[in-house]
Amino acid sequence: MSDTIPKKPLLCVPVKAFQRAAPAPRPPAAPVVPAPSPAAARVATKTRAPIPFGQTNTAALGANGTMRLNKRMAELGLASRREADEWIGKGWVRVDGRVAEMGMQVAPDVKIEIDKLAKGQQANLVTVLINKPLGLVSGQAEDGHEPAITLVQPQNRWAEDNARFFFHGSQLKSLVPAGRLDIDSTGLLVLTQDGRVARQLIGEDAVMEKEYLVRVVYTGVLNTAAATSAAATYGGKIQQLSRIDDDDPISADVQSVFPPEKLQLLRHGLSLDGQPLKHAKVEWQNPEQLRFVLHEGKKRQIRRMCEQVGLKVVGLKRVRIGNVMLGNLPVGQWRYLAPHERF
After folding, report:
1. Rounded to whole angstroms, how far apart are CA atoms 87 and 79?
2. Which residues pair with 284 in a beta bridge?
3. Distance between CA atoms of residues 197 and 189, nearest Å
4. In angstroms, what CA-CA distances link 211 with 132, 240, 316?
5. Nearest to 113 by CA among 81, 80, 79
6. Regarding the domain with residue range 127-336, which homologous superfamily does it belong to in the CATH classification?
7. What is the pLDDT, as a whole number, of residue 22?
8. How far apart are CA 54 and CA 86, in angstroms?
9. Are strands 289-294 and 281-286 parallel, antiparallel or unpaired?
10. Nearest-5° Cα angle at 303, 286 to 247
11. What angle (nearest 5°) sits at the alpha carbon of residue 100, between those of residues 99 and 104?
12. Which residues contact 214 (CB under 8 A, 6 or more apart)?
């Protein structure tokens, strides 16, 4: 009897088992949110700057007439605000005998003491006086014109400078203009490392007198556009001014033809950019040259004032800031502000 292999039973699978399952239903689509406008995006991303480490109150003025310490120190002429913060951070400032804290509020009658280390650091800050020539800009280089600070080199120091400072390249660090003088104006320009000097000359409450010699010609044409635009002087054209020297000959008698009532208008009654100008002292220095003494410094102020009364400026030289005179400092040379000098 031969062996036989039993047959395996057939597996019956329903046809439906081989059919692809129906896909699961998709979730409902999320609603489309419109992108915010650029203005709204700027508002949404704008955040308040963090309070500096160790500082609890950044308000300049506090309750009951108090004031932030660094602002009070600047008011008293002890230091610039930035300098004050640096000293406070180093523990060099005491208020009523206690070491000051960053950002603290103080009453007007507190006693503020400065460590001798801070005073020594401050004593090393220099202020430089330059007799700026034509063609140099006061601040950063622009349009191919070099800044006035390039003159501050040993070879350009005035031989008669008696200030007890020795020039070092480190003095150029943080030496910045305390005010400006146009590229085609000459005369006294101040560069300083000292925040106290900068605040005194160009701070928001500065009222320092500035004196100028201004050579003019009388055109009789009133340029009213100069009242609202600095670019409108000289009819919008570039005009190269001439240098003013003490021994220049007088070539025209402008004084005799210029109406006296227009001179009075230069002293008071003009406006620039919609703002009335402060009283100015304006007198004839010689028949073709005026002397201006101003307490403010708007862009191209003297030129714009003159053009409103029919004068055209052909030369402009600053000769004094406060109590500091240009004196005999030669054009293109510089000297230090001496320790005893005060603006």
Report:
1. 9
2. 290
3. 13
4. 15, 21, 11
5. 79
6. Pseudouridine synthase (3.30.2350.10)
7. 54
8. 13
9. antiparallel
10. 30
11. 155
12. 289, 290, 291, 292, 302, 306, 313, 315, 316, 317
Task: Look at the pTM and tell me if it is higher than 0.90.
Answer: no
| Residue 247 scores a pLDDT above 90 | no
Per-residue pLDDT tens over the stretch 18-44: 455 555 556 555 555 455 454 444 444
Place of tokens 């129906």: 22
The one-letter amino acid code at 32 reads V
Query: Per the structure block, which two tokens stand in for 133?
Result: 């020539």
145, 95, 310: which is closest to 84 by C-alpha?
Answer: 95
Count CA within 13 A, CB hemisphere, residue 1. 2
> Treating both helix axes as pointing N-terminal to C-terminal, what angle do 301-308 and 260-267 enclose, rounded to 10 degrees?
150
pLDDT tens per residue across span 276-313 = 999 999 999 999 999 999 999 888 999 999 999 999 99
Exposed (0-12), middle (13-18) or buried (19+): which is 295, by Cβ within 10 Å?
A: middle
Cα–Cα distances in angstroms (integers) from residue 317 to residues 121, 210, 258, in the given order: 34, 11, 21
Annotate the chain with three-state secondary structure. CCCCCCCCCCCCCCHHHHCCCCCCCCCCCCCCCCCCCHHHHHHHHCCCCCCCCCCCCCCCECHHHCEEHHHHHHHCCCCCHHHHHHHHHCCCEEECCEECCCCCEECCCCCEEECHHHHHHHHCCCEEEEEECCCCECCCCECCECEHHHHCCHHHECCCCCCCCCCCHHHHCCCEECCCCCCCCEEEEEEECCHHHHHHHHCCCCCCCEEEEEEEEECCCCCHHHHCCHHHHHHHCCCCCCCCCCCCCCCCCCCCCCCHHHHHHHHCCCEECCEECCCCEEEEEECCEEEEEECCCCCCHHHHHHHHCCEEEEEEEEEEECCEECCCCCCCCEEECCCCCCC
Tokens coding 37 = 């406008």
Q: Token pair 């006693």 is at which residue?
A: 111
Domain ranges of the chain: 63-123, 127-336
- The highest-level CATH class for domain 63-123 is alpha beta
Phi, psi of 92 (to 5 degrees): -95, 5
